[in-house]
Amino acid sequence: MVKAGSQVVSKLFAAHEPEILAEWSQRLKDDGALHSGRIRETELNSQCKSFLAALRLALDSGATNTDEAAFGGVRDLLTEISGSRAEQGFSPRETALFVFSLKQPLFDVFQRHSKENAAASLETNWAIGLLLDRLGLFVVEAYQRSRESLIVRQQQEISELSTPVIKLWTGILALPLIGTLDSERTQVVMENLLESIVTQSAEIAIIDITGVPTVDTLTAQHLLKTIAAARLMGADCIISGIRPQIAQTMVHLGVELSVVSKATLADAFRLALARQGRTVTKVRNAALGSPSAE
């Protein structure tokens, strides 16, 4: 039954594709596809035209199952459209409507032009509905995969941006940490720090945890891993930014960092300079006759 209905649908496409395209595009616009401004009318029309062409080719081959090779072009196109709409911020409902909104135009065009009996019409309508339902589910799944991939990529980018390694002085690096440390982020922190130690030939790395909300046993373990890795690369570490509340928590938990720590980044930087035989002093500005810090 489905195969016979699909053959009728194929003939329907061949004879009335422009009419179907026009009604489908208008229905998408009426449903608000362009209201958000995230997609242009020309892009929407191009997607509709490409989808109908790919669908017609698949149906012309006699295929009825959307998992068949003949529907490969349709699946690839829908995957691309779903991915672009996930990045553009469309909701799953808005993305799925791209396919589901084609049902009514196909039904209407078929009713206007079909000369088949009631039984044959029912068979064709069933074939149309079943085909578009499967493709609609495929779109939702493709959208979900694209969205999950986008979220993972954004999390990685945010993690990298939130762990910058700053050169404070020749041979001295600072790694300001903001937010909670977990295993995945610790790996990013470690990689960024070690790479910077090598490229900058750094001797001292200051790890500032002022922006870390709390330090528990797990966070301390992550810090120790980072410190150990830096030491293996030949750089000493200094921890700065331990607030009174964090210090008390670490004492209660029995956490031992086994590394020099300072209350502020400025104190840690002063210590790092001292280890290099440098110091910060005031100099007198000859032109103004007053001291200034340098």
UniProtKB/TrEMBL annotation:
Which keywords fit this entry according to its UniProt record? Phosphoprotein
Q: Does the keyword Phosphoprotein apply?
A: yes
Residue limits of the STAS domain? 162-276
State the CDD domains in the record. Answer: STAS_RsbR_RsbS_like
What InterPro entries is this protein classified in? Bact_StressResp_Reg, RsbRD_N_dom, STAS_dom, STAS_dom_sf
Q: Which residues form the signal peptide?
A: none
This protein's record includes keyword Repressor: no
Could you name the domain of life of the organism this protein comes from? Bacteria
PANTHER family, per database record:
RSBT ANTAGONIST PROTEIN RSBS-RELATED (PTHR33745), RSBT CO-ANTAGONIST PROTEIN RSBRC (PTHR33745:SF3)
Q: What is this protein called?
A: STAS domain-containing protein
